Fold these 2 entries.
Entry 1:
Amino acid sequence: MREGPYIAEIAALIGDPARTNMLTALMDGRALTVSELAHVAGITLPTASGHIARMETAGLLAAEKQGRHRYLRLSGPDVATALEALMELAQRTGAVRLRTGPRDPALREARVCYDHLAGARAVAVAAKLADAGMMVDHGLTDAGRAWLADRGFVRGDGRRPFCRTCLDWSERRHHLGGALGAQILSRALDEGWARRGEGRVIDFGQRGAAAFDRLFGL
Amino acid sequence: MREGPYIAEIAALIGDPARTNMLTALMDGRALTVSELAHVAGITLPTASGHIARMETAGLLAAEKQGRHRYLRLSGPDVATALEALMELAQRTGAVRLRTGPRDPALREARVCYDHLAGARAVAVAAKLADAGMMVDHGLTDAGRAWLADRGFVRGDGRRPFCRTCLDWSERRHHLGGALGAQILSRALDEGWARRGEGRVIDFGQRGAAAFDRLFGL
DNA sequence: CTCATGGTTCGATCTGTACCGAACCATCGC
DNA sequence: GCGATGGTTCGGTACAGATCGAACCATGAG
């Protein structure tokens, strides 16, 4: 009972434009400094410092000190999950200005969503699994599990779902999240098929894209 | 880019204690009147009316007029999903005051979470599936699918995952959500094994509880 | 040591908004 | 028609918190 107020505290924290800008900037999973966060939020250093302190004590952010820099990151995947849920809501209710047009096509093609791959290429993977009957109702079948295991994607960490579906911001269809999504992303990076670009962008080279598509039979 | 501010708008809306109280009160999926919402939020009618108007234009609530009453309900499952994500976050970050003690044992035993069953009995079902190898990493195996189909729980609506796991507020373990969770709840109600009680409480009679447990082999 | 840079703390300002009481509108029962 | 009940609108108050400049601490470079 009376669980309301406590989630209100967190929602209010997320509900400030400056803080939201910082949080979404951190959704690519990387850690940013206080100055960088101040920049993306468009506010001065003192103000940003205050915001960060609040989010830190609330447990939304985790900090790491290195020299005279302080690096901030989201304290866990559940923060990103909550943000995604809010984005999905914002999208349906139309509170969102549709900038998903040609603006930054690289971002539409492939980007990172906290720790997994999003964008057209990620949606294609999810669609392939669904078409092949390896996913039904957003859940993996045993056939799907086996097919993925063949390609080196095995069990998750047990603490979170191996395979989650996550509504894609630009494509408006689902891509893969969870431990599986994270493994797919790190595979692409490890194999040199892709590398991190500006912001949340993921750059696939021509050869990299081909290799990625071959692995998933696209 | 700059998706931030729009989700901020929604988060800010959720981030007010009075509104949060209303929203969580609506998580049982039923529609409440303006007066009832004012009561659960502990504010006067005019104030509540204002809050509701804002949430309505923002698309969080849907209204239906009946005589001189206005019935409000959540505009969709995604609203409940976002609230759940925030609750999970609030729980991990410890922003939550632990009132999960003996307070209202009926609520701990069985309650409704928007459209599916939560509480000890619901957690037991999820645990059973996991123990029997019918769920791994929070996803159903084909064996699990078959076992559920035997019991009349078949495919979902295709628009949402058939089976989602949802962190249980009181038990701190997962129960079943998604289309499956909704079907389990309506089955229990349809069969007369349980009926809705005060607020979110679900009352299982002795015979109802036994029948329910038998179905799931508890 | 000295300076520059990254970050925090402190006051002060100022806007936004939650809240209530009172008046007003709408619907139902009579 | 009349009162009673459910909701909305309006005006005013009051409190929270977002913001900035300036002063202050900490670390690394030279």
Note: The first strand of chain A starts at residue 32 and ends at 33.
Entry 2:
Amino acid sequence: MSVTIRDVAKQAGVGLATVSRVINNSPLVSAATREKVSRIIAELDYHPNPTARRLSLGKTLTIAVVTPFFTRPAFVERLRGIHTSLIDTDYDLVLYNVETTERRDAYMRSVPRRERVDGVLIVSLPPRNEDLISLANCPVPIVMIDANHPSLTMLHRIVINDVTGGQCATEHLIALGHQRVAYLSDTFETPFNFTASYDRYRGYRQALERAGLHYRPEYVVAGEHSHAVARQMALGLLRLPEPPTAIFAASDTQALGVLEAAQVLGLRVPEQLSVIGYDDIEVAEYLGLTTMRQQLFESGRRGVALLMEAIAGRHADPVCEEMPVTLVERRTTAPPA
Amino acid sequence: MSVTIRDVAKQAGVGLATVSRVINNSPLVSAATREKVSRIIAELDYHPNPTARRLSLGKTLTIAVVTPFFTRPAFVERLRGIHTSLIDTDYDLVLYNVETTERRDAYMRSVPRRERVDGVLIVSLPPRNEDLISLANCPVPIVMIDANHPSLTMLHRIVINDVTGGQCATEHLIALGHQRVAYLSDTFETPFNFTASYDRYRGYRQALERAGLHYRPEYVVAGEHSHAVARQMALGLLRLPEPPTAIFAASDTQALGVLEAAQVLGLRVPEQLSVIGYDDIEVAEYLGLTTMRQQLFESGRRGVALLMEAIAGRHADPVCEEMPVTLVERRTTAPPA
DNA sequence: AATGGGGGTGGAACCGCTTTCATTTTGGAA
DNA sequence: TTCCAAAATGAAAGCGGTTCCACCCCCATT
């Protein structure tokens, strides 16, 4: 059908091995031969068949990315980082979207197989404990990105320190002079075992403690991840006998709900209420929302770098890299009235 | 290294061919043999090597998706549709992100090759004219999703009729009683030759014409795709001696800019100004923005379906399928004061 | 009882590449 | 000029599947 290495060899009057050497830049070819073969390759518009190459090499030259797409910018940014790092390599990027726990479990078992891929990136998806052992013993290297979990120490991972992030956000508010700081997030228990909200909560607690501020249980609310629910929860907080003067929302989406609540109650932001979010999504800039920014793109890049190292056989022991989180100050936080 | 078909054959005391037949559900195996082989397969935890399979079959069992991710929800939705349709097939989804014209041109040449993939989905990316001919003559089936271009008639494609969409949006405003309707969009000329904005503009013109409304050039503005620029342009429109009573923004992002401009000028929406967007992105619902919704997820599904048909050899001639666009009425449009 | 046909089966070729290994060629030293 | 090590080369053996084809066996037909 299409032109093969045999055609090139015949046409150039050399053996298969020589053509293969030319393709793979082996030094064991004389300049003259190389030149001749290269010419024929160009003439015939020959492209080596990657499938045959993979089979012969015993490698798949393929990296799998397992992640819940969601409809969040964070996913795209991480994926961009991953893709960009893979451009200049031989590796293909094959994608596995997870939207149910069933699919997650199916992929956790079927994707990381020697015959399928050379490496796996699992993004924003903590595995079940049942899968942990098999993942840790898996012959193909695995790197987890953004899946911090106490029991993940046997896996390579790029973590985002949400505890520190939550602490930073809270400290920013405290530094502005706020004494009554509330925390609003999505539920701590989710089907996918996301720990971000809980970690940020822990950071919040730590910041309070360090500042010597009293922890008030009534200042911590959690509910479904949507601006509508966030608004209701924020209304609840702001109608307390002694309402908070600042609210730390565990995501920008929820911060939007808080802003909406403030508007409903006629509270001016930031004069009467400070609001800080988390993620730095696109509209955050538009709305002037102060927030915590993660290095999403960079986390993808680092993940690929680590995975490549693992594939190359470096790292006998699991490596854990931490990505920094930075405060982006905009117009929704200010000292209390 | 890992267990192969040969191991299974030996263990089961049958020939390779028989094991292969069992794997591929060939009817040419007796029930007894099938049962025995299946048991051994399970026992040895055998998984056929996809690479070897591909080489032998002469298929890559791989679909390429070439698309600019951007950081837009629209991308993720289309991709979700594509991925979902591929789950129950043998096909892998490999991803090619395009962020520069150089990459686009490189991918247009290197990706659609027999030895690489069985089919290609090109999403939201009109090819250059130079590439058109080679794409049309390409031995591997190609389906364009959301890349409407007059000269694309020789390629399979799923189109979103932006002319109709633009017309609908405009007609909605006219039906409400607006006589002075403006159109605000991103620039018609882009490095990637996107035609959406221009098509929507044409729809806008058509709607005006049908309603017998006078076209005013000063009511049409275009600039970079961002809410900030959109706000400036909207301010310009609203400060005209005879300002429009309704603005059709070519994207929700830009509609946000319009809303901001209205706020700056103290105009109440929708009482004093109607605004309609396009895309129905996530915040649109949050802000109650009236907008045009595309069937993004479904466009991905249809693209895969069409591609599979093309791979199967149906469709001697290029097929063009049109996806509907629907009006989502929310709280930013109303009859003029 | 001989014949024909069809279902079941296994051997072997093949997919297109890489790589080992044996062989030939080359270049420089003796 | 001879000789040897090093460089260059090609044949062939995989990689792990699929499938063609020849073969065997069994049963129904004549």
Note: The radius of gyration of chain A is 26 Å.
